[in-house]
Amino acid sequence: MWIRIYAIFIKELKQLSRDRMTFGMIIMIPLVQLMLFGYAINTDARHIHVGLVDLSQTSESRAVEQALVATQSVDFIARYRSIKEAEVAITKGEIRAVLYLPADMTRRLFNHPLYDHKQTDSQLTQPIGQWIVDGSDTVIASTIRALRNMPLDEVANHTATRTAPSFEVVQYFNPEQRTVVNIVPGLVAVILTMTMILFTSSAIVRESEHGNMEFLITTPVRSIELMIGKIAPYVLVGLLQVAIILYVGHWMFSVPIKGSILSLLGSSILFIFASLTLGLVLSTIAKTQLQSMQMTIFILLPSILLSGFMFPYDAMPVAAQWIAEALPVTHFMRMIRAIALRDASLLLLGKDALWLGLFTIGGIIIASLRFKKTLG
Amino acid sequence: MISNESEQVEYAIEAKGLSKHFGNNIAVNKLDLKIPKGSIYGFLGPNGCGKSTSIRLLTGLLEASEGDVTILGNPLLGHEEALKKRIGYMTQKFSLYDDLTVQENLNFVGAIYGFVGKRKKARLEELLALYDLEKQAKQFAGSMSGGQKQRLALACATLHSPELLFLDEPTSAVDPENRREFWERLFDLCAAGTTILVSTHYMDEAERCHALAIMEEGNKRADGSPQALMDAMPATVVEVSGNKLRQLKQTLTQHPEILSAAQIGAHLRVLVKKKVQDPLSLISTLSDGRETVLARPSLEDVFVTCTGDRYVD
């Protein structure tokens, strides 16, 4: 039995090393995705293009503008004479928001309860200006909303009378709040899902498509041997990809890797096995490599969108959370982030590890049952 | 070689009422076979006649809808795995790995059949020499000629020295020279005691078999040795020579006693029903005194008389 598995393993490894396209993809997919996601995805918006309608035209209004630019959240790229003009610009998409400073802005500023210690009559309290935002993009809108209570001490030449905040927030594990810290370990999960499922689902189908299967069936090879031999090389491929993403992510984006290598290796292997068996199950359904590709994408999209890679798991409705729970990638997403960023040990994540293990066993049973049928 | 003289003939393959349905389509219909050990048996028939399906049923690749099969003395049902070590199968399409070298392909198949170490090395060297592949050992299988690929496929199918070898249209992608050579190798294997079942749509190949079955639309129309089939043919062959043979063919084929007329070079080969007492004079009359002679039947004539709407019971 082991001779046959080893023979298939060696054969598969040789074929893989000669398939330059596939071999290149194994290395290039993680690198390119890492660059793209590492640089491009950022959930805290900066330098949002905004416009200004300044009816006040005072040194104070210019000071307010300067203070806003200093936050780096917005860039004033245009000025408009009226709100109407600015609204058209928002509709056209030239700017995402506009700041309206009324003619009596200076008076409003000095009457503002934060800066005028004698002012007690809340009737007179008015905001000093208004933001009109393209609220369709929630990230932009929330960034602008965060400017609502921006301190304007320097403009008003007064230290604001301010009460202490209700809560103090201490940010563990990612104090600078860089998105990339959360993205890189998540990327490990997404890329493994993609390559592991794709390679295995097409690996078996390729044998039948090229007519090799017909010969193999008449040899003493058993289906379980064929499956193990065929997917074993991809365990190595998967581990190579994990190493590439974490190492390059650490080196380029200074993403910390706090957890132990053993926990990383353990969780990665568990997830690789789960993904490979999922690929195997798909391969017993698909008749051609194109079909296996389509099914991989069918699995891949929910894996990216529901696993917590892009949107927080907690923000999803319960039904979506159930679907997410069924996907192995959700569990691995939790594990890899916990291990890499929070130095959790594999034992601490027993539930997720158990699910991946059960998924693998179930997958192998289904695949070998179905595989038998396709031969008959 | 066939041991007809021996008292008790041992059969490599025995099938009774073997049938395979795909939905409403009957691919193989109640096939009965008795193939003696050590012989070369042929399946002759057009594409889609059920040759490949029959071979797949006999190798255990497909499960039969009905019927019993005994392979090498064991019922096929339930012994598929054990029999896999004793049979070899060469598929119609090249089924080895194009992106592996000849040596690597053989190595892989060797390991699959449990050959290891020195035993594997010795067997591989033997096969490379036997099938004249020593120079190609390091070449990728995908870059080889049709004849070389076929030799490699045969080497892989016979690596474990099977007692029974199935060949599904082995020579369809090979030139006549290589075909000849290939058959020499089959006779070598046969002389060493291997039973061979080969499917073909070439008459000359069928003629080389010890015995054959003519198949059409899933049915076995006739079987026996090529000579016996020719002797038992329900028709007499008359050759007509002269001019305007195309027109003559039209008139002849209308006649109820004439099974077929086909032009072969300058002759018209006419098959007349055997019950006609004097076929020569019948054809002479019909062909306005053109030259007519009786001819020796060929396997093609047998094929023509037992297939299509000319099929005579």
Q: How would you describe the overall organization of this protein?
A:
The complex is a heterodimer of chains A (376) and B (313). Chain A is 64% helix and 6% strand. Chain A is mainly alpha-helical. Chain A has 2 domains: 16-41 and 177-375, no CATH class; 48-156, D-Maltodextrin-Binding Protein, domain 2 (3-Layer(aba) Sandwich). In chain A, strands 2-1-3-4 form a 4-stranded mixed beta sheet, with helices on both faces. In chain A, strand 1, helix 3 and strand 2 form a beta-alpha-beta unit. Chain B folds into 2 domains: 11-230, Rossmann fold; 234-296, Alpha-Beta Plaits. In chain B, strands 6-7-8-3-9-10 form a 6-stranded mixed beta sheet, sandwiched between helices. A 4-stranded antiparallel beta sheet of chain B has the order 2-1-4-5, covered by helices on one side. Chain B has a 4-stranded antiparallel beta sheet with strand order 12-13-11-14, sandwiched between helices. In chain B, a hairpin with a 2-residue loop joins strand 9 and strand 10. The longest helix of chain B is centred in the middle third of the chain and has 16 residues, at 176-191. Chain B is elongated, with a radius of gyration of 22 Å. Chain B starts with 10 loop residues before the first strand and ends in a 7-residue tail after the last helix. Chain A binds chain B through residues 3-4, 6-8, 10-11, 14-15, 18-19, 210-222, 375-376, and chain B through 59-63, 81, 84-85, 87-89, 91, 93-100, 104, 107-109, 111-114, 116, 156-157, 166.
How do the strands of the widest beta sheet of chain A line up side by side? 2-1-3-4
Total of DSSP H or I helical runs spanning 4+ residues of chain A: 15
Give the oligomer, counting copies of the same chain as homo and different chains as hetero: heterodimer
Q: Give me the Rg of chain B, rounded.
A: 22 Å
Q: Given the helix and strand composition of chain B, which structural class is it?
A: alpha/beta
Element order of chain A: H for helix, E for strand:
HHEHEHEHEHHHHHHHHHH
Distance between the termini of chain A: 22 Å
Mean pLDDT of chain A: 86
Q: Label the overall shape of chain A.
A: elongated
Main β-sheet description of chain B: 6 strands, mixed
Order of helices and strands of chain B: EEEHEEHEHHHEHEHEEHEHEEHEH
Largest sheet of chain A: 4 strands, mixed
Euclidean distance between termini CA atoms of chain B: 31 Å
Q: Which bin fits the share of residues in helices of chain B?
A: 25-40%
Supply the CATH superfamily name of the largest domain in chain B: P-loop containing nucleotide triphosphate hydrolases
* Strand coverage percent of chain A: 5-15%
Helix content of chain A: 55-70%
Total beta-strand segments of chain A:
4
Record field, number of beta strands of chain B: 14
